Amino acid sequence: MNFYLTGIEGMPKLLDCCDDDPMKYFSKKTYADAFHRMYQEHVPTFDAIEQGYLTVIDKEQFLTNMADALAAYGAQKYAACPKRSKRDHLMMDLNLTMAAFVLPMILEFHGESSGPLAQKATEAWKRQFPKSALKASEYRYIEEGFHKKFCYITTAVCESFGRQDDCYELRTLRSYRDGYLASRPDGAELIHLYYDVAPSIVKHINRRENRKEIYESIWEQYLAPCLSMIEEGRLADCEQRYEEMVFTLKDQYFLS
């Protein structure tokens, strides 16, 4: 068996694991089953890379080649997208696929090559997409996140309208957050701030008698426009509105 050839051919295929629609697999109900199915499909690639890594002399170059094949395929898919608006959506999907599926699958193998390969893949991705702030996370940390209400404000608004946790609005905004926003230069910092202040904001809003009106205002002023912007491919505009929401609500309700 040619371990190098199997690995170099298998790495780009990881990026197709979600059939170009990672969002349909990235929810509390679908993620665990989808991840394990995808992982099992690609075990032969990880096994070949592990065997090659254990036998080659230049281990670093071996993994660099594997990672470059993956990132180059991502760049090829991006370059083949004809319109700018569609490219923005594709970039969000590619980043989400990498962050939620590809890198966690690499780490899930738990071989001697797994950690170094995930690092190499992250570095190669950033060379192809310099604005990306991609970080490797293990599957168990991501899966655990679905059991916590990370979209605190959006969840509270949707609940006030009687919508479910896996409704279209929540899934779209979560995908935007974990894909496009997390890849932006200041996106991770903004998301971290949101996690810090959002629980307190929701707590203080829920204490008010007019909380339903407040949530309706948040929906009309911030969340509905954000959804429209995402659907239209205006992802940078959505980022500005999202940031405005975080800081405005922080000033109004964080310590009220």
What do these coordinates show?
With 256 residues, the protein is an all-alpha fold. It folds into 2 domains: 3-143; 149-253, no CATH class. Helices cover 74% and strands 0% of the residues. The chain contains 11 helices and no strands. It has helices at residues 3-14, 31-55, 59-79, 84-108, 114-128, 139-145, 152-160, 168-183, 187-206, 211-231, 235-253.
Outline:
With 256 residues, the chain is an all-alpha fold. Helix content is 74%, strand content 0%. The model has no long low-confidence stretch (mean pLDDT 85).
Notable features of this structure?
256 residues; mainly alpha; 74% helix
Q: Which class best fits the helix and strand makeup?
A: mainly alpha
What would you report as the Rg, rounded to the nearest angstrom?
Answer: 20 Å
- Number of continuous helical runs: 11
Largest sheet: none
Elements, N to C (H/E): HHHHHHHHHHH
Averaged pLDDT? 85
Instruction: Give the fraction of residues assigned to helices.
Output: over 70%
Spans of at least 5 consecutive residues whose pLDDT stays below 50 are none
Number of strands: 0
Distance between the termini: 65 Å
Task: Reconstruct the topology from this structure.
Blueprint: H1 3-14, H2 31-55, H3 59-79, H4 84-108, H5 114-128, H6 139-145, H7 152-160, H8 168-183, H9 187-206, H10 211-231, H11 235-253
Helix pairs in contact: 1-2, 1-3, 2-3, 2-4, 3-5, 4-5, 4-8, 7-10, 9-11, 10-11
